[in-house]
């Protein structure tokens, strides 16, 4: 440190006669060089630094202003969105209430239509059963009639001889002729 203070003190005591020389002591010359460089920088760079700081200040202020405008727009959009959300929630509630009543109505209609369909199916079933019963009865009647006819023919064939058979046929032909005359 003594060298640094000595170099400052020795500035005032330069030898007037003599030669120009170089001071090779780094510790003695660095503070002088630094102070000269800093002085030049401050003198010439003060305007540039001031302009840079002013520009930076203006950009920050513009950014703040823009941010405030955007925030205002965002708040306005948020309020609009909240109003739309409230409207949609109200409509959704109405649809839900209307939907429940519509569902109940459709449920009753479906139940009524199902009951009617079941009644129709029951009627069709009963008609089918009656039809099948009637058909079965007719088939049984036809078989019984065929069997009775076959027995009767069998009995007639076994009991009748040719002469009796010819008389029966003649009598039946006579009856048919009489019936024909009556109808004509």
From TrEMBL:
The chain crosses the membrane at residues 32-49. Keywords: ATP synthesis, CF(0), Coiled coil, Hydrogen ion transport, Ion transport, Membrane, Plastid, Transmembrane, Transmembrane helix, Transport. One of its GO terms (biological process) is proton motive force-driven ATP synthesis. Pfam families: ATP-synt_B. It is found in: Membrane. The keyword Ion transport applies. GO terms for cellular component: proton-transporting ATP synthase complex. Residues 71-98 form a coiled coil. InterPro entries: ATP_synth_b/b'su_bac/chlpt. It is a single-pass membrane protein. GO terms for molecular function: proton transmembrane transporter activity. It comes from the Eukaryota. F(1)F(0) ATP synthase produces ATP from ADP in the presence of a proton or sodium gradient. F-type ATPases consist of two structural domains, F(1) containing the extramembraneous catalytic core and F(0) containing the membrane proton channel, linked together by a central stalk and a peripheral stalk. During catalysis, ATP synthesis in the catalytic domain of F(1) is coupled via a rotary mechanism of the central stalk subunits to proton translocation. Belongs to the ATPase B chain family. This is ATP synthase CF0 B subunit. The gene is atpF.
């Amino acid at each position: 440190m003594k060298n640094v203070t000595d170099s400052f003190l020795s500035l005032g005591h330069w030898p007037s006669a003599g030669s120009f020389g170089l001071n090779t002591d780094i510790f003695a010359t660095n503070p002088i060089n630094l102070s000269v460089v800093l002085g030049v920088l401050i003198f010439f760079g003060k305007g540039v630094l001031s302009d840079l700081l002013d520009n930076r200040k203006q950009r920050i202020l513009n950014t703040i202003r823009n941010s405030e405008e955007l925030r205002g727009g965002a708040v306005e959009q948020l309020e609009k969105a909240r109003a739309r959300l409230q409207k949609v929630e109200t409509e959704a509630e109405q649809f839900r209430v209307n939907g429940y009543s519509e569902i109940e109505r459709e449920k009753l209609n479906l139940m009524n239509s199902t009951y009617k369909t079941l009644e129709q199916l029951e009627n069709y079933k009963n008609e089918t059963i009656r039809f099948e019963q009637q058909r079965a009865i007719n088939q049984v009647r036809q078989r019984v009639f065929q069997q009775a006819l076959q027995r009767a023919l069998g009995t007639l064939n076994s009991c009748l001889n040719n002469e009796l058979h010819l008389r029966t046929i003649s009598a039946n032909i006579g009856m048919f002729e009489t019936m024909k005359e009556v109808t004509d």
